[in-house]
Amino acid sequence: MVSKLDRSTIVTLCILVLLCLAGVSVPGYRSWKARQQETLKVRCAQALKDKEWDQLETCATAWLDLDKKNGFAWLYLGAAYQAKGDFELAAECLNSLDESDPKCLEALLELVEMQLGKLNRPLEAVATCRRIIKIDPDITKAHQRLTFFYAMTLQRREMIRCIRASIDLNAAEPEAYAYLLMASALRFSNGYRINSHWLKSDPNYEHFQVACAVFLAKGSSRDDASASDDPGAVVDPTLEPLVLECRERFPNNTEILAYLLEFAVERGDLDEIADLLSAAPAGAELDSRFWRYKGWYHAAVEEFEYAEKAYRESLRWDPYDWRSRHQLAAVLRRQNKLDEMQLLTELALKGKKLEQEVQALANAADVSVEMARRISDFANRVGDSQVADGIRNSLEKL
After folding, report:
1. What is the distance between the alpha carbons of residues 203 and 207, in angstroms, rounded to a whole number?
2. pTM of this prediction?
3. Which pLDDT belongs to residue 224?
4. Residue 85, phi-psi category: left (phi > 0), alpha (psi -120 to 50), beta (remainder)
């Protein structure tokens, strides 16, 4: 395709020479060129309507021979290649529009879907989303696809950063708040299937490998229909070799650490918990779950003041972690701090109920207006004014 399209300059020069020999002026050539482009535009539209893909390719290519910067021509040519199953060339077309072209963002958004899907180039999709946001930070779809990628690959910190950036720009989709609500317990029945597919695009990418291991160990099956009834169930990591392999390969990965800590807590293995906490990599202190497990350990050995501090730190990083709030309430009860304990218990129950409702949705994008309002109210009660105000602003636009 490149050699075919690079000939446009030669074609134009040849036409100019011929027209000059024929005594046609430059203004006359421009008028002829404009008429030709209008004709090709009509033919492209008709070919698209009739699903005549070869004709569409021919007309769009001829149009680009006359004007290689025409966004409509690139989109028509991309549509022809896509319909014919040549997604590589279709992607080249979508990526060829000038950033000043009004159709550029539309083309790039379509390219993102192709990179996440048919082309299976998720990391390129991330780069394309960032390019879109750089051109126009208000494009909600780009933020939404970035959030989806980071959520699905269990990159919680990046996910939260992306969500809060989109909220500041008033460009957050309703599902962003759903992801934020369950940030400390991301569970997707199709998590293994999607990450194992993406893994084929880059077998060495750490986050694809780790997400595959964690989702598989927690019951996210290769076949969604055979997934366990409890997609968050933690199994013995020794029964899932991928978890241990990732532990060896990526000792600084916080997702693997959190999985092993969760299993150790369920068993009540204090020695294992202490070892894992002491070996926590840099950055683990930015993860609410690390502080929750630390709080659990201190509470288990009756170091209630240390436990309280750890749980409060957990909630500082994730005010929606109802597990930390529930466990903090239990610690305060042991210290006879009953007033705050009752409030925390109430909020923990509300948070748990909201998380369960979000988890029950077939798709995070299915968040209703009524549910969004309840998330906003809950965000306000746990002190997250950014989210509370962001949801209210979003609802006002409806």
Report:
1. 10
2. 0.87
3. 39
4. left
Q: What pLDDT is stored for residue 241 in this prediction? A: 82
Cα atoms in the 13 Å half-sphere on the side-chain side of 150 = 22
- Residue 274 in this model has a pLDDT that exceeds 80: yes
Assigned CATH topology for domain 116-181: 1.25.40
Query: How many residues does this entry show for the chain?
Result: 398
Do 137 and 157 contact (CB within 8 A), yes or no? no
Locate the DSSP E strands across the chain.
none
pLDDT digits (tens, 9 = 90+) for 98-107: 999 999 999 9
> What tokens appear for 329 in the block?
């309430």
Is it true that domain 1-96 has CATH number 1.25.40.10? yes
- Position 166 scores a pLDDT of 95
Distance CA 290, CA 270 (A): 15
Q: What totals of helices (H) and strands (E) does the chain contain, helices first?
A: 22, 0
Query: Residue 7: phi, psi to the nearest 5?
Result: -75, -5
Would you kindly state where each structural domain of the chain is located, as residue ranges? 1-96, 116-181
